[in-house]
Structures are given as structure tokens and as C-alpha cells.
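hey so i finaly got around to running the thing on cyclic-guanylate-specific phosphodiesterase from Bradyrhizobium iriomotense. pasting the sequence first so u can double check i didnt mess up the copy paste, my clipboard has been acting weird all day
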Amino acid sequence: MKPARPPVSLIALVFASTLLFGLAGHLAATSFIRHQQARQLDELTGVVLRRSEFAIDFAAASLDELAGRGLADCSPASLQAIRLHVYQRSTVKDVRLVNADGSVICSAYSETLEFDKGWVHRADMQGSRDTGLLLFRVEQFGGDALGVLRDIDHRKALVAILGVNSSLFDIMPAELRAHSEVLLALSNGEKLGAFMLDADKALREATDFDKSSARYPLRTTIRVERAVLATWNSEVYWPAMALALALGILFGILLSRSRRMEGPVADLDRGLARGEFKPYFQPIFALRTGRIIGCEILARWLREDGSVVPPMNFIPLAESSGRIQGMTWQILGSALADLQPHLKADKDFKLSLNVVPKHLLSAGFVETLRSTVLAAKVSARQIVVEVTEREELDDLARAASVVRELRDYGFRVAIDDVGVGHSGLSRLKGLGANTIKIDKFFVDTITVDASTTTIVEMLVELARDLHMTVIAEGIETDEQVRALISCGVEEGQGYLVAAPLPFAKFIELLKTRRSISADSAAVLVA
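ok and heres what it spat out for the C-alpha cells, dont ask me to read them lol
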């Protein structure tokens, strides 16, 4: 007896389904690759733009400080004070006093005037969102510079001359560096700086990725050869195809069995109802001594079966669906219950929690936070609210009011992801926070990129001017610690000390650190 063969119609259906899913997989994989390429290059364009904005913010703050100190004149004492100010700020190369029309009256370093090939009239300068601040290109022998003009009164103004270092633009991935160009220009098209590995080589059939500043007349462009872009990150094509086919097969099986499909949001709701979201604790430590002075709590999803869901698999969905608020209160309540004895025993120990801007601005946020902390019998001054910069604060005035209310009750406020987020330095100043947290992006490159060191030093200097503390995130090596200390950073967190830990392991780490410190102190006494 011959085995039964599958009917021809079933074979045809399987073939058609395979063909359909193969086509869908191809389109999905191609679209995914193009989207990832565009997203990564858009992020890199934004990094160049934000680095440039930071430099201008810093220059504007320096000019405001000089004007506030009454140094807007050409007396020898004023010029000497301005030279000292410039010496202490590596980003600013010179400061000049100019007339209302922009013509130069005097310069802190008069010899730099000899390098100018020309000087722009005020009418040709580019305005910014700050009406008292103008930008213009300073043509000089050996390379151009950026002029930042700040009006003092209707008769005169101060100008900071910023050197444009092309290394600031050396950000492209290794696969694209030899086939790309990064440009920075004013909105009128005047080029300020560029980076290309081989300046004598012309790009062939390049694709442009542009981004303009919302605050300054700046525009950044990344140009990449299309032939190289077509093969960049293409290794994800086949995995994406396999994923599309697997999802198609799974979808077909589920449909064939007529099983009701529930969305991932419903899964989040079940996890919240069961209390499955738990805090993990990552230490914050003093860079010079290694002493643990606080911790940041991070959400982890511990399912009933014991598996742990990584945060990137649920945090974005929780934020977009609004579940992040309930999740935040759940992990804060659990963390306070666990850590309450330690917080009461060490009044200087700080507990930090992340809050997205929408949650910060939601009705009843301050009252709920106060009642949660009061119920735990913990001091408000030991709680740090970290507001992430990755989501833009649409209403800065309202946010500043909430931050002011939090500080009035004793809470501390930190701005997370500084340097890669949405806010400029002027917005950081307007928010009125206590602390800025330097993003891991800068810590990763601080030992290999001189421009990163300049940016970190600038952030530390600004924090000091605003009476803020600085914490560096993502520290992994002792070399990074030494580099951060040399820039003036005093506190940090990262895998060098510990990854985010469950409570039991975190307490064990605290006890171990204390024991080591006690033994060291005993040896010193002996």
C-alpha cells in the first residue's frame, strides 16, 4: 500500500504562502535596513549639531559672564581679565569688543586680528532664537572660525571667536569613514568646518542627510556614497528574512487554530497587576575613593516563570502606551521598602529614579511622589528624580515650575542623557535642576577622542557656574575614571563597580565595600 500523498492544492497553497512570505520578508528586510541606516545617520548628524550648539552655548555663557562683571571695555585691566577668562576656556580663542555695526574696537589678543582675511558687517550676520545673539563666519588664514556676538547695549557688543576643530566631526563608522563627508555650515550656506578622511578624493553619487538647529542658524550635512551605503549593515538582511518568515508561519498557525491573540500591552497590564516589575540597583560612586554614595533604580520584568525580560523589550512600549507611570510607582514603592533601613541609617545616601517628561508634567506627580516617600518614612532630600532628555520637554516653563516645587519639598532633580538628548545648555539652565548626568556616549570615547574631553570639560564648567553636580554614566575602565577626574567629574556609575543588581546582591556589595573600607582604615590606624 502506497503512502498517501498530500493533495496538489495543499502543495500549491504552501508554495504560494512561501512565495508570499518570501516577498514580504524581502520588502520588510530592505525597508528595515534602509530605516536603520537613516536612523543611525540622522543620530550622527544630530550629534554633530548638538556638539556645535554646546560650543555656542558655552561661548554665550562666557560673554554673559564677562558683561556681568563689567568687562565690556578696552581698558588694560579689562583686557587682562578677559585674557585670563579665555585662557581658562579652551573652546574660546579670542574675545573682541565691537561697535553696534560689528566693527572691531579692541581684542583680548590683538595679534589674532592679523589672521583675519575679512570681517563681517552686522547686517550680514545670522540671527538666532535668542535675538541678542548673532553668528557669523570669521575668514582667517589657515582656516575659518565662528564668531558669536552678544549685544551689551545699543552701542556695543562682545564677540567670542570659536575655533572650528574638524576632529569634532570625526564620528562616522569605520565602514563609511573613507566614503563620506561631514559638514557644518551657517544657514546662509557659509561652510564653517568639514571632515573627510581623504580631502583630495571627490565623493561619487552621494546621498545627503541634513539637520538644522532650532536655536541657531546652523546646518549639519552628512554625505555618503550610495554604493557604500547600499552594502552597509546589509548583514541583517537574511536574519530579518528569517524573522519575517517565522512570524508569518506563526501567524498562520495561530489563525488556523482560531486562537485569540492578545496584544503586548495586555501582557504589560498583567505584569503590573501581578507586581512583576522589580527594581534593580546600580551603584553611584565617588570617582576618587570608589565609595558607594547612592544608587539608581532600573526596572526589570521578572515573570512568574522566573525569566527576566530585558528593559529594551518593554520600556519603549510602556512609555508609548502610558504604562510607564504605573511601572515607575511600582518599582519606587518596592525599592523604598527594600532600602528603607539603609536610607535611614545613612542620611547622605541617595536613591535615584528615572522619570520621563510626560510623567513629570502629569497631574498629581509631585503629590504622589511625596505621599509615596512619606509612607516609606524616608527623607525627601535622599530622593533624586532623573528626567531623561531623550524625550523633549514641550513646556519648559511648566517643567521648571514642577522642578521648583520638587526642590522646595527637598527632592533633588537630575537631567539624564545630557549631551545626546534634546535640551541645549540654555534649557538646562532654565530648568533649574541640581545635577546633570553625562551620557555614556561621551564616557566611551573620552580616552581616545580629544574633542570629547573638551565637551566634558565644558559641561563641568557650566555645571559649576550653575551650582550643579555632575555624574558620568557607563564607566567601564579605570582609564575612563582618571580621564573624568582630570575633567573635574567627581561621581559616576557603570559596570566598573557593578551592573544593575537585584536588591540582595546590591546589599551584599554594599557590605563588602564597607568591610574593605573598614579593613583599610584599621591598617592605616595600626
